[in-house]
Amino acid sequence: MLNTTKLTAAVLALAMAGPLAAQDGAPKSGGTLNVVIQPEPPSLMLGLVQNGPTQMVGGDIYESLLRYDFDLKPEGQLAESWEISEDGKTYTFKLREGVVFHDGEPFTSADVEFSMDKFLRESHSRMRTYMEHVESIETPDDHTVVFNLKQPFGPFIGIFEPGTAPMIPKHIYEGTDFANNEANNTPIGTGPFKFDKWEKGSFIHLVKNDDYYMEGKPYVDEVYYHVIPDAASRAVAYETGKVDVLPGGSVENFDVARIQAMDNTCITDKGWEYFGPLSWMWVNNDNKPLDDVKVRKAIMHGIDRQFAKDALWNGLGKVSTGPLSSSTRFYDGETPDITFDPEKAKTLLEESSYDGETIRILGLPYGETWQRWAEAVKQNLSEIGMTTEIVPSDVAGWNQKVADRDFDLAFTYLYQYGDPALGVSRTYMGDNAAPGSPWNNVANYQNAETDKLFAEAALMASPEERKAAYKEIQDKIVEDVPNIWLLELGFPTIYRCDVKNPVNTAFGVNDGFRDVWIDK
């Protein structure tokens, strides 16, 4: 049993925290919500598959212990309160009472222990890494869970969201082959909506969970996720009234302004704070002349990122200042100068080892916006005196070329998961640079000093100490320019204005439909 005298007295969250966004009046019950989902998810079993579409649908079926507001502050979900010990090594969660899974079985601390210590350790690569910091899990009663860490791990309080730590029903999965359990086809969680039907290539249908533990919620009766492969057809589906919500990335950016001008249409770029999608160009630091920091700095100063934001992304998002998104904890925008300065770029290039070599630009094959962006970068670099070529590729080819390090510059964007220890260090740590993955330290950036700082900062209990460490890290990395940082991407969610409150946490539509209501 945990000695609670070692715990801090402050309770960090209460159970019934209200939705974060304005609701424009008293919520109304009833109605059908029609949403685009693209691409079609390979599975809805969120403990096994974590790609974007699976998280979007699965986030209304499964839940975790916490949710996170737009400032990444935790609030209660399946946990009604929690405490953290003064030494940062013990986390005690008090679970809500009266919660049941969709099949009617009670949700208890045994499900938390099974989910975190068994199922996710085996099946979820990101969670397996986080759980390496956990020494043991105690369940002193059905509604108390205690995590005992080996050492302080600052980001730990930020991992309890459905895409990372979904609560899996122990009574269905214990002792089974997780990947081949037949229940994967009819997912069962504790969430506000229950799985009903999946017509492959057409739609996924969820229905209201009448036994949901929050009285009166969810407000809508059902949700249809419509599978519409073509971006232009998705835009038409909204224009004709077939769908009510276009999640971020559903339509081409050049269509956003036209759709936004329609009657009864609202738009927001909120709901991406936890993911913090940051775009950059990988720089192959092993290839000459890109191993020359002056060449990398010339490229950095030679690219007009404000133009990309205004002309290609419709003014949404922000120009990046370095390796951290401004929504990520411990972000500091006062990094060394990387602003657009073509004259400075030309001078740096003249002083560098660049000798007219052709630089290969690997575009990201995610639609016309990204193709135009590659063309804009090619133009920018030609204007400072570099010779470049764009290498065409499909998604499979892009994955292979980046994994094999077969590029000079390669467009990408990655999620940051709210904390630099969760989503940033992986792309800069020297021991995470082996070829074979498009998601690790693809640039092969090697800096023993920042490696040491990353390792130390993740284990600091004090937020103030972590902030100082990550400030130093950001400055050192930006000075080295191992990658060419572009934009904090703005992925707007477009929706009917009579659909109220669709984006109300840092995860956007991935877990927001609990609080949605339709004003009709």
TrEMBL record:
Q: Does the keyword Lyase apply?
A: no
Mostly located where? periplasm
SUPFAM superfamilies linked to this entry: Periplasmic binding protein-like II (SSF53850)
Q: Which segments of the protein form a coiled coil according to its record?
A: none
- Any Pfam family hit: SBP_bac_5
Record's signal peptide: 1-22
Q: Where is the Solute-binding protein family domain?
A: 73-428
Q: Subcellular location, in the record's words?
A: Periplasm
Keyword Signal on entry: yes
Which CDD domains would you find in this protein's record?
A: PBP2_NikA_DppA_OppA_like_13
Q: Which Gene3D superfamilies match?
A: Dipeptide-binding Protein, Domain 3, Periplasmic binding protein-like II
Q: Which InterPro entries match?
A: Peptide/Ni-bd, SBP_5, SBP_5_dom
Keywords, A to Z? Signal
Q: Which family does it belong to?
A: Belongs to the bacterial solute-binding protein 5 family.
Annotated protein name in UniProt: Extracellular solute-binding protein, family 5
